[in-house]
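Researcher: Quick test of sequence recovery. C-alpha cells follow.
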C-alpha cells in the first residue's frame, strides 16, 4: 500500500479551509488541481500551493488548465493574456512551432513562480468542421501531422520550464459535436478513419508522462461506454497508441458521465485508468470519490512515481528575451532571417 490516493482533487476557494485541510491530510490525494475560483494574485496563489502541499506533508504535483486563450485560470493583470491556440497558429503559420514553444515556455515560468508544476496541455485533439465551439479554437490544428508536431513542441516547452505536461484528450475528442461538460458526445466515424487521424495524433506523444482521457463514445469500437470508462478504449490507448504513462480521467463531475460519483470512479478504474480527476472542490463529493477509489497500487503506482521523475529544474533562459521574441513573431516585426534560423 502506498498511502497515496488514486485521485487528484481541487479546493473550494482562494485559501484552504480547515475542513479541507483535515480531509486532505486523511485522504492523501496524489495531487491537486486549481481553477479560477482559487486564483486572485501571485502572493495568494503561492500561499495556497504551499498550504495544499502542507496539508499532505509531501511535495505533490499541483496542476492547472493554463492553455491560454479561453481556457486560462491565471489572467491579467497579473499574468499574460494569450490568443486561443488555433487563432495564434493562424496568425503566423510560418513560425507556428517557435511561437508555440515561446508561449508555453513563458506559461511554464509563470506557473512555476507560484508553485504550480503541472499544466493540462497540450491538446492533441484535431479540429474539424464538426468540432464543438467549446473545444475547436483550443486545438492546435486540423491536420494530424501538424497537430502531433505542435503538441510535442508544447510539451517540450513545458518540460524545459520545469512543468509536467498532461496530454489531452486521449484518444481524441476533436470529432465531438457536443460539450462533454453538459452531455455525452458520440462519434460514429469508422475505426479505420479514427486510427489514421484522431488516434494517430497521440502516437508521437505516447512517451510523455501523463495523459487525460476523453469523455466520448466511439460507437464502432465501444458503443456502450465513454472512453474514460471503456476497457476497450483504454486497451487501445495502451496498445495501439502505445501510451505507457499515468492515465488520468477527465473531470468526473462533468455531466457526460452518469451515475453517482462513486460509481463513476469505480467504472473508470476498472476500465484501466490509473487516476481519478475530480475538479469542483465540493468536499462531500471528494469524500465519496476517495472512498470509492482507494490508494494507488501496482502498475498505477509505478506510473505515478515514474511521472514525477520527469519533474526538473527549468532550463536557464532570459525570460524577457523570450517574451520579446514572441511579441515580434506575433506582430511580424522580427528579422525574418533571425526567425528562420530559430526554426
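Model:
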Amino acid at each position: 500500500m502506498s498511502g497515496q490516493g488514486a485521485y487528484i482533487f481541487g479546493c473550494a476557494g482562494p485559501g484552504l479551509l480547515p475542513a479541507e485541510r483535515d480531509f486532505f491530510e486523511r485522504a492523501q490525494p496524489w495531487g491537486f488541481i486549481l481553477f479560477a475560483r482559487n486564483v486572485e494574485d501571485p502572493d495568494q496563489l503561492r500561499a495556497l500551493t504551499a498550504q495544499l502541499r502542507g496539508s499532505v506533508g509531501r511535495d505533490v504535483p499541483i496542476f492547472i488548465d493554463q492553455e491560454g486563450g479561453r481556457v486560462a485560470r491565471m489572467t491579467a493583470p497579473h499574468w499574460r493574456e494569450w490568443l486561443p491556440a488555433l487563432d495564434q497558429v493562424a496568425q503566423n503559420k510560418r513560425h507556428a512551432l517557435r511561437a508555440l514553444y515561446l508561449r508555453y515556455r513563458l506559461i511554464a515560468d509563470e506557473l512555476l513562480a507560484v508553485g504550480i508544476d503541472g499544466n493540462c496541455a497540450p491538446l492533441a485533439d484535431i479540429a474539424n468542421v464538426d468540432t464543438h465551439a467549446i473545444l475547436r479554437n483550443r486545438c492546435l490544428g486540423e491536420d494530424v501531422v501538424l497537430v502531433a508536431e505542435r503538441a510535442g513542441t508544447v510539451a517540450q516547452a513545458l518540460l524545459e520550464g520545469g512543468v509536467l505536461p498532461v496530454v489531452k484528450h486521449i484518444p481524441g475528442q476533436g470529432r465531438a459535436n457536443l460539450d462533454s461538460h453538459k452531455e455525452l458526445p458520440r462519434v460514429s466515424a469508422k475505426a479505420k478513419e479514427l486510427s489514421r487521424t484522431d488516434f494517430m495524433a497521440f502516437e508521437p506523444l505516447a512517451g510523455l508522462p501523463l495523459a487525460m482521457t476523453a469523455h466520448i463514445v466511439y460507437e464502432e469500437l465501444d458503443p456502450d461506454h465513454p472512453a474514460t470508462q471503456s476497457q476497450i478504449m483504454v486497451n487501445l490507448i495502451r496498445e495501439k497508441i502505445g501510451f505507457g504513462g499515468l492515465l488520468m480521467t477527465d473531470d468526473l463531475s462533468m455531466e457526460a458521465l452518469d451515475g453517482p460519483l462513486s460509481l463513476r470512479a469505480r467504472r473508470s478504474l476498472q476500465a484501466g485508468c490509473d487516476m481519478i480527476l475530480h475538479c469542483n472542490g465540493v468536499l462531500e463529493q471528494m469524500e465519496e470519490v476517495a472512498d470509492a477509489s482507494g490508494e494507488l497500487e501496482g502498475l498505477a503506482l509505478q506510473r505515478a512515481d515514474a511521472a514525477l521523475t520527469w519533474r526538473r529544474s527549468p532550463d536557464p533562459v532570459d525570460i524577457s528575451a523570450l517574451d520579446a521574441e514572441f511579441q515580434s513573431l506575433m506582430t511580424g516585426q522580427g528579422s525574418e532571417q533571425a526567425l528562420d534560423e530559430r526554426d
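DSSP finds 13 helices and twelve strands in the chain.
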